[in-house]
Design a protein that fits this description.
Radius of gyration: 14 Å
Largest sheet: 5 strands, parallel
Oligomer: single chain
Helix content: 40-55%
CATH class: Alpha Beta
Shape: globular
C-alpha cells in the first residue's frame, strides 16, 4: 500500500484531504505542523508527502528540504496559494516533485500523486489492485 502524509494546518482542509486519499485506497497519515510531519515521517513508512506551503512553524519548502535530507526517495508535493516565481523555484530546488496551486482541483491532485514514481510503480492503490487482478 502506498502511504501518503498530508501536512496542512487548516483543520477542515486536512480532514478533507485525509478522507479523499483514504477513499482512494492510500494509507494516510496527517500532521498540522512541519515538526509533526518530520516526526511522522521518521516513524512511519511514508512514500508521498503533500504539504501546504504556509505552516505555523516553518514553510513547506524548508519541510521538503528536511524530508529529502532524511528520506531522499520520498516524493514531495507542495500546495500553495502563493505561487510566486521565488516559491516555485525554491520548491523545485528543494526537491519537490510538483507544485499544486490552491484551490486544489481534485482530479489534478489525484493525477499528480498517481504519476509513476521513479521505480516505475504507480502510486494509485486502486489502479494497482485493478492491474493485479487482471
Amino acid at each position: 500500500m502506498t502511504n501518503i502524509l498530508v501536512v496542512e494546518d487548516d483543520f477542515n482542509s486536512l480532514n478533507g484531504l485525509v478522507e479523499l486519499f483514504y477513499q482512494e485506497g492510500y494509507g494516510v497519515f496527517s500532521a498540522r505542523t512541519a515538526r509533526q510531519a518530520v516526526v511522522t515521517l521518521l516513524n512511519n513508512p511514508i512514500d508521498i508527502v503533500l504539504s501546504d506551503y504556509c505552516l505555523p512553524d516553518f514553510d513547506g519548502v524548508r519541510l521538503i528540504k528536511e524530508i529529502k535530507q532524511r528520506k531522499p526517495f520520498t516524493q514531495c508535493f507542495l500546495v500553495t496559494a502563493f505561487a510566486t516565481n521565488e516559491v516555485v523555484a525554491s520548491a523545485y530546488q528543494a526537491g519537490a516533485r510538483r507544485l499544486l496551486n490552491k484551490p486544489l482541483v481534485i482530479d489534478e491532485l489525484l493525477d499528480a500523486v498517481a504519476e509513476p514514481l521513479p521505480s516505475g510503480y504507480v502510486a494509485r492503490p486502486r489502479y494497482n489492485r485493478a492491474i493485479a487482478a487482471l
